[in-house]
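Researcher: Quick test of sequence recovery. Tokens follow.
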């Protein structure tokens, strides 16, 4: 039985789309879209593609051949994903070239003798080759709290107290695979947004709105369908036949935006290279928290029968949550505290040092809406987090180089994003931390709980309002 296809995905020309429109029509409505016209200047589109429009495999071997990468075998399932192995880029390319010359003649879906079909996935290309500027992230995707944070708090030194608690170096990837490679049905990590740009080749996407995601789960809501094109058992997945999918073909040089919580399955229709980021921000922060709560409840239920013999049942649930989901409650909360402080400092600096009127400054509006969304999510956290967090001292935190890096990266990105052209143009480095600290009394300097963070945000807002009016968060 075929899938029910209920519609197509809109295509818009990125050169005619303004940031505010993208936010209103796609981020806020959580709707997918394909964006064209944004990749012409990318070095990747030149270096990585041959004149015939195929992946330039010899370029990869000679430039990046020694890199170690994760390769999925599309022919082998392992639990909910494809079996993965680590290999060098040159071995991966060697396998691809062998396959092509041995069996296929021209690019076609072909498996190795042992039935394997290799797909290079989740290559942290930007982290590894930061001097080779393969592309620039389109403006629509730059309000990226996840990668701002990981860029600042990523430590190789595991003993560091401030090490990055989120279990990944960054969420910027390159994918490469021959025709027929594919990605099983899934919703993205942390229920983040993602964007995926086709440097060469074509992909067929099937997407399912979150309002229908229960239809791809079994009757106990435990596991979801792996491959929507296999013979899906009606007994196991009774709702599957009712699901109505969006289908689209993404061409070379097109970028697809995949919103939060949309289940999707992807097929490379030709030999394909793509660039892919995951991110979250004020518009989907609540999705991240809701996923953590759901996964926490599942982790708890899974070990319920050993509760009585466990010294620290709650600690074990949180450890399992961190392993399975990539972060736990306190990792998320520490991220939120650091991120909120960076927002408060930038806001305070705009208003106090640079005498910006809030209503005249899109960047100040942006910072305020970030803080408003943080407050909303944090107020839901109180019940879960009372006991988990050890105290975070605002004064100590502000002195850390990692924090300064976060605050500067965020400030710089927002100034560019919001096209701020003030007569008082200034460098993010000028932000006066001492002055900011002065405005916080001792009772707000220590954050133990979500409620403390809300009080701190309100306190800074009230302080700014006293002198500058209208800082409503
Ligand atoms: O391109 C693919 O194979 C998968 C990409 C994907 O699932 C994503 O961007 O979330």
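Model:
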């Amino acid at each position: 039985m075929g899938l029910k296809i209920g519609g197509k995905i809109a295509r818009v020309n990125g050169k005619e789309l303004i940031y505010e429109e993208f936010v209103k029509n796609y981020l806020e409505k959580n709707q997918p879209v394909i964006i064209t016209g944004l990749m012409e200047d990318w070095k990747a589109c030149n270096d990585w593609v041959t004149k015939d429009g195929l992946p330039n495999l010899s370029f990869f071997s000679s430039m990046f051949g020694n890199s170690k990468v994760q390769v999925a075998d599309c022919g082998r399932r392992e639990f909910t994903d494809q079996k993965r192995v680590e290999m060098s880029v040159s071995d991966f390319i060697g396998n691809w070239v062998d396959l092509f010359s041995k069996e296929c003649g021209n690019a076609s879906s072909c498996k190795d003798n042992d039935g394997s079909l290799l797909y290079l996935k989740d290559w942290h290309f930007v982290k590894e080759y930061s001097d080779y500027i393969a592309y620039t992230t389109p403006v629509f995707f730059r309000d990226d709290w996840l990668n701002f944070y990981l860029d600042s708090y990523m430590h190789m030194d595991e003993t560091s107290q401030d090490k990055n608690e989120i279990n990944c170096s960054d969420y910027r990837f390159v994918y490469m695979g021959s025709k027929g490679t594919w990605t099983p049905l899934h919703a993205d990590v942390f229920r983040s947004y993602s964007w995926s740009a086709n440097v060469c080749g074509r992909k067929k996407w099937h997407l399912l709105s979150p309002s229908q995601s229960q239809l791809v789960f079994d009757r106990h809501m435990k596991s979801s369908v792996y491959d929507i094109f296999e013979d899906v058992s009606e007994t196991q997945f009774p709702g599957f036949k009712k699901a109505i999918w969006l289908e689209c073909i993404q061409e070379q040089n097109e970028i697809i935006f995949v919103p939060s919580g949309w289940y999707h399955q992807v097929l490379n229709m030709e030999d394909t290279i793509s660039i892919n980021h995951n991110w979250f921000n004020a518009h989907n922060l609540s999705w991240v928290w809701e996923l953590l709560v759901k996964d926490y409840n599942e982790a708890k239920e899974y070990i319920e029968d050993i509760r009585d013999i466990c010294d620290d049942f709650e600690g074990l649930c949180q450890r399992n949550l961190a392993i399975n989901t990539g972060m736990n409650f306190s990792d998320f909360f520490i991220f939120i505290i650091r991120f909120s402080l960076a927002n408060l400092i930038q806001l305070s600096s705009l208003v106090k040092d640079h005498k910006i009127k809030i209503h005249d400054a899109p960047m100040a509006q942006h910072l305020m809406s970030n803080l408003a969304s943080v407050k909303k999510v944090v107020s839901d956290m109180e019940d879960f987090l009372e006991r988990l967090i050890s105290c975070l001292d605002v004064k100590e935190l502000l002195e850390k180089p990692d924090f300064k890096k976060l605050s500067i990266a965020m400030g710089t990105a927002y100034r560019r994003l919001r096209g701020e052209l003030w007569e008082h143009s200034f460098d993010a480095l000028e932000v006066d931390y001492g002055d900011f600290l002065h405005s916080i009394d001792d009772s707000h300097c220590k954050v133990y709980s979500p409620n403390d963070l809300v009080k701190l945000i309100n306190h800074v807002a009230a302080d700014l309002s006293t002198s500058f009016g209208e800082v409503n968060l």
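The radius of gyration is 24 Å.
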